[in-house]
Amino acid sequence: MRHGLPENAEIRALAVHPEDDAQMFAATQAGPYRSGDGGESWTSMHLPTEEITWSLLLHPQKSNVLLCGTVDNGVFRTDDGGGHWRQLDYALPPAVCVMGFPTRVIGLAMDPGNPDEMYVALEVGGLVRSLDGGRSWTDINAGLLEFTGQAAYRSRIGSDTDTEGMMDSHALAISPAAPGTVFLANRMGLFVSEDKGESWRDLDIGAFSPITYARDVIVSPHAPETLFAAISKAAVSDAGSLYRSDDSGATWRRFDHGVSMASTLMCVATTGRTDQRIYCAARRGQVFGTEDGGSTWSEYSLPPGVEGVYAIACP
Known about the structure:
single chain; mainly beta; four-stranded antiparallel β-sheet
């Protein structure tokens, strides 16, 4: 065991409680775990399934409410801090691509102004949406699939359909500055819906970056119009980059500098404590951070052999 985590813990997502940064949550191959001392020790939250946990979401208004997503499409919710869990049932969208791995819930989002509006990102299966707190669900892939009428949005790596790239979801974000507006990072770039997923448009990260594979997108807790996005060449590659937008995705600029990202940038994290601290992590074991709002950057290499980085969190 590692401070209470399962042996050889595989952590796919991390979250820090916005009101108490001693409280942390981790999605592992043995379900969600919780720490009350900033990660020094961990205990299982006893999810009622043996499925691997891939994503976590803290309710923006209720401190005891947590959602987690698993392999094989499970979404579970606790309203009492993990004492009890219930599964939120939805039908898989028809556009799910059959890959060499099971479909998994890789991202979760709630509208901060109306948490009953919930979104689930599937890898590789696009998105589903609930507007009633998880009681009913809708497939919202139609607008994303429309892009595949153009050759530039077609991609096939592990399935038998070239809609695969647009269904290869990675991350979701919703800003309190724009209720009903959903940002999506996927294999083909960054996309936004301003009508709760009914229609989508390309944010055209390719106009600002020579590489476009998007792995993560988050909203700053200090400036709701500010977004950060992890942009790379491909799922496994030799180049990554961190981009920032201060106008809700209309324009972007390269944000990291003075460091060399030698693999795919997988994740980015901020903290509610200060707008000066931003960290990100690359797939093959590099961590990069700034403590002065991006003026200077430092690199922190993980121990040799530590690779497959999927998550980072900032207290």
